User: Fold Dihydroorotate dehydrogenase from Roseovarius phycicola.
Amino acid sequence: MTRNQDNKHSQDDAFLETHFEAARRHVPAPGDDVIQRILEDANAQQAAPCGPRVEPVQKAPHGIKALLDALGGWPAAASLSCAAAVGLWIGVAPPDVLTFVAQDYFSTQTDGAPAADADGGFDFLEEML
Assistant:
């Protein structure tokens, strides 16, 4: 049974191959009207002026615009100025709670390391010299 099917497929392949060979031998040429339209389109495109496209030159931002662009725009500048204002406020008039936390943080010794003074210096440097 498979022999008959294989034979049928080979007959179909041979039949198709003869038609494909005939199609390869006969290459159709385009008609004169098609060639005429292609040439008219080509001439129309050649007649159109084509020069370099001149793009307007954009100047690089300078001044406050350049600073805002570097920071990330108005939202980033507003956030940065708010953080700077709060930092200045806390630095000038620190809350009482912050003072106690800072004193506790800088004056405790847990592992025998020297603690920092309130002015930021270390006592052990003076002792070593």
